[in-house]
């Protein structure tokens, strides 16, 4: 079982890296972009456990370490 | 005064900090991150600058779980004075000992230069040798110094006089060089015993190196 955690800056918190990538894309001629946000993806390989147990465990990991909830949001996807 | 200076893998300002406090006549112990206790009779804990754990994940996010941080948290909760400089500031915010968070600088640059600062509130153990609105000249060196706090948190900081220092230009006008909310360069907790700032006062203690404006910050704790 695998957990995929996406961590990104909260909406409303300026994302300087996203902004730089946005400008770079526009200067390369890619127009019509409204916003670019850059985050991190953390892939966690888990031993055998129920999907619910995995979800709870990874939520705790995210709140404790993987995301700083003062500035970041996260989402979790559990895949087999 | 007895000062404990923490050292994590990747810390690189522990000896500058030791030198600065010893120059002021204090006893300094460098404390390893794996220690679970602080030495007896410590008056001040300094979390110095550097790149603890390579800044992996987020600056300070791994160091804040090092064994010694449990002792530092207990020390702070009992009213002990703690100072975080640069990466130390990041560690203290990650640990929840200081409000807010430090993000990547808005211009994405690692900014390393002498910077003017304005004292926002000197009514505390850290800045009591200065007056409000004093202008200081102190080095900064960071990539993740962009202080963020939400609006409600900012109001709390203002109400309790927790904003310590702001980035300014040489005329004293607000200049948020790294994108920090309200150009904040340093804050303290509500109880005013935990302090954090991005600039490096320990690098500004001798005129021959460009400035000695940092001395009074370090002296503040002894008075």
Topology:
The complex is a heterodimer of chains A (80) and B (223).
Chain A (H helix, E strand, L loop, with lengths): L1 E8 L6 H12 L11 E7 L5 H16 L5 E8 L1
Antiparallel strand pairs in A: 1-2, 1-3
Chain B lengths: L1 E6 L6 H10 L3 E6 L11 E4 L19 H11 L3 E5 L1 H8 L6 E3 L7 E9 L15 E8 L3 E3 L2 H9 L3 E6 L15 E5 L5 E4 L17 H6 L3
Parallel strand pairs in B: 1-2, 1-3, 3-4, 4-11
Antiparallel strand pairs in B: 5-8, 6-7, 6-9, 9-10, 10-11
Describe what is shown at a glance.
Chain A has 80 residues and is α+β, with helices and mostly antiparallel strands.
Instruction: Tell me the Rg of chain B in angstroms.
Output: 16 Å
Task: Give the averaged pLDDT of chain A, no decimals.
Answer: 95
Number of domains of chain A: 1
Beta-strand percent range of chain B: 25-35%
Oligomer type:
heterodimer
| Structural class by sheet pairing and helices of chain B | alpha/beta
CATH class of chain A: Alpha Beta
Helix count of chain A, per DSSP? 2
């Amino acid at each position: 079982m695998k957990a995929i955690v996406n961590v990104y800056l909260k909406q409303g918190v300026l994302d300087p890296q996203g902004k730089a990538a946005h400008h770079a894309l526009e200067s390369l001629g890619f127009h019509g972009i409204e916003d670019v946000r850059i985050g991190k993806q953390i892939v966690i390989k888990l031993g055998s456990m129920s999907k619910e147990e995995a979800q709870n465990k990874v939520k705790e990991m995210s709140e404790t370490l993987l995301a700083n909830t003062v500035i970041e949001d996260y989402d979790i996807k559990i895949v087999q | 005064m007895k000062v404990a200076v923490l050292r994590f893998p990747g810390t690189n300002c522990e000896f500058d900090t030791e030198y600065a406090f010893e120059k002021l006549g204090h006893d300094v112990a460098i404390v390893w991150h794996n220690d679970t206790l602080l030495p007896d009779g410590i008056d001040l804990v300094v979390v110095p600058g550097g790149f603890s754990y390579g800044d992996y994940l987020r600056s300070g996010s791994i160091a804040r779980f090092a064994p010694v941080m449990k002792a530092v948290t207990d020390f702070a909760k009992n009213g002990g004075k703690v100072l975080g400089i640069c990466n130390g500031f990041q560690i203290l915010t990650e640990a929840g000992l200081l409000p807010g968070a430090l993000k990547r600088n808005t211009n994405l640059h690692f900014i390393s230069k002498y910077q003017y600062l304005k004292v926002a509130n000197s009514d505390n153990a850290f800045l009591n040798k200065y007056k409000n609105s004093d202008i200081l000249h102190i080095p900064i060196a960071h990539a993740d110094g962009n202080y963020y706090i939400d609006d409600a948190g900012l109001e709390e900081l203002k109400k309790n006089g927790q904003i310590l220092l702001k980035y300014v230009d040489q005329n004293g006008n607000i200049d948020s060089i790294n994108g920090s909310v309200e150009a904040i360069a340093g804050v303290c907790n509500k109880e005013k015993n935990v302090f954090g700032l991005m600039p490096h006062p320990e690098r500004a203690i001798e005129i021959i190196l460009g400035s000695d404006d940092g001395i009074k910050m370090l002296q503040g704790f002894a008075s």
